[in-house]
Amino acid sequence: MHLKKMLVGMSVAIFLTIGFTDESRHFNTFAQSAHPTEIVSVAVGPQYDTTHVYVAPQDFDGFVASLTATFGGTTTKQGVFTVTPMPSSTMSQLVLTPVGTISVFGFKTPVPYPFGSERTGYLVTDMDEGIRAAKATDADVLVTPFNDPIGQDAIIQWPGGVNTQLYWHTTAPSYAPLQKVPENRVYVSPDRVDAFCRSFLAFSHGSVVSDEPRAPGVEIGRPAETYRRVRIESKFGKLTAMVTDGHLPYPYGRETTGYEVTNLADTLTKAKASGVDVLLLSY
To answer: Which of 127, 167, 200, 283 has the fewest CB atoms within 10 Å, i.e. the most exposed one?
Structure first.
């Protein structure tokens, strides 16, 4: 739990702001292209997009408690399930906060490949259409659809090596709209970022909010430099692509989600009180 708690604390401490300021809007050709008409939108809403967190079973309850103490919200009933196509056993619980939804897993058995490498779960309206759309937009299907206790799951990989779970429920879930939509944070290389963006934009039917070629390097721990930052919004929520050479000081590159909060200082106080380690001070 210690590491995962640190990662959540890091997202709050570093990357949560009261809003976005786009100093420049440098749009590339992928931002201007129309969505292919044959690709059906399968998005449901950002409150159904879940950040996936894997913790040790003995740390499970403490981690969930730290999340709700920091962000507020509610949890679903904890259970032990098989959520992979091969035999396995994991504790599982959903944390529904006003600023984002988190799926927590505590595997009691070894974690089958490639589970644990996916950063986010996206609810889709139809699994077959979701897989068809993924393939049509040059995403790879790492794990073909399989049944879980409440529906179906699959794992896809966008160009650039970013893994995402797609899931579908037999009985459609109903979650309250979020007060703030979280930011899915993706680190990609300069060679693959355009391919990633084209693929994700076509799949999500999203749009580029900003493409900043000289974003301040302090955002990735390199204050004397600049880097390229692409922000995308869709019905799946917000996504920020950080384009780097991979020379990142710890802990940059480890965070998967940024949570926007109304009062950063207040949130950090709650986080510290619940045992979260703040790795970097706010700036």
So the answer is: 283
